Amino acid sequence: MNKAILLGSAGGLAVALGMLAFGFVAGNPQAAKADTVQIAQVTSSTDTKIDRKEVEGIIRDYLLKNPEVLLEVQDALEAKQKEEQRLAALGVIKNSKDEIFNSTFDGVVGNPKGKVTIVEFYDYNCGFCKRAIEDMQALTKSDPDLRFVLKEFPILSPDSQKASVVSMAFHLMHPEKYGEFHTALLGGQGRATEATAIKVALSLGADEAALREKMKDPRIAETLSRTYDLATKLSITGTPSYVVGNEVVFGALGQQVLAEKIEEAKSAL
């Protein structure tokens, strides 16, 4: 038990009694009652000074006999944190709708005017993102009303960042070919780098000199910086991660889960 809890104070004693009361939840009402009685005996003395060591000993013995209580506390804490995270994300999505769903620098596949939008934060060197590209293709093929936004979030390496700069420059020059570029680079073998990204861009008709000049556009670095800030606010720390409707979905959870989230977003319209 963390000794930082001030069992010598009235507030600390309340915490201790509350923890013992978990015995009822854990299915041990008698054990909890017995230990509570012991604490009551310790604190009912006419001497107002509480024997800290004795109280700590009782709590320690109780937790050793009923360790499942700690699991219940951990589960409750995780549930509370997830709910707080969900509510915080709701606020961010509400206040940053255009930046999330309608950034000029984000590529779009599927129906550009679709009623439902799913936003993917991805890294070109993310193995899970490479596997998830099939989910994107299947979902946009099966749902003609789906708008799939691709948000550059290069967090794995400098190579990823350089590849994203090429990607964003290509998108500004040839938005109509961006879906092909994205599929070729993310679905390709080997590591995505500036060189491999430029090779893909040239294969799709980009002029190398014009592309390299566009890569210097200061708005690209500014957009990536805003994306990192947005991801932090949304508690996104890995790729792929998605925003569907008013919910953030973490990880490559598969086509079925994403499809369910899309249906939930449709029903909320």
Walk me through what this model shows.
- The protein has helices at residues 10-25, 29-43, 52-65, 68-95, 97-101, 127-142, 158-173, 178-186, 194-203, 208-214, 218-233, 255-267, and strands at 107-110, 116-122, 146-152, 241-244, 247-250.
- It is α+β, with helices and mostly antiparallel strands and 269 residues long.
- Strands 1-3-2-4-5 form a 5-stranded mixed β-sheet, sandwiched between helices.
- Strand 2, helix 6 and strand 3 (146-152) form a beta-alpha-beta unit.
- The longest helix has 28 residues, at 68-95.
- The radius of gyration is 27 Å and the shape is elongated.
- The two termini are 48 Å apart.
- Mean pLDDT is 83; it is low at 1-27.
Offer a quick outline of the entry.
This protein has 269 residues and is of the alpha+beta class.
Order of SSEs: HHHHHEEHEHHHHHEEH
Based on secondary structure, the structural category is alpha+beta
The major beta sheet can be summarized as: 5 strands, mixed
* Relative strand content: 5-15%
Radius of gyration: 27 Å
Trace the largest sheet across and list its strands.
1-3-2-4-5
Question: Which descriptor suits the 3D outline?
Answer: elongated
- Number of discrete helical segments: 12
Terminal Cα separation, in Å? Answer: 48 Å
Give the uncertain stretches in residue-range form.
Answer: 1-27
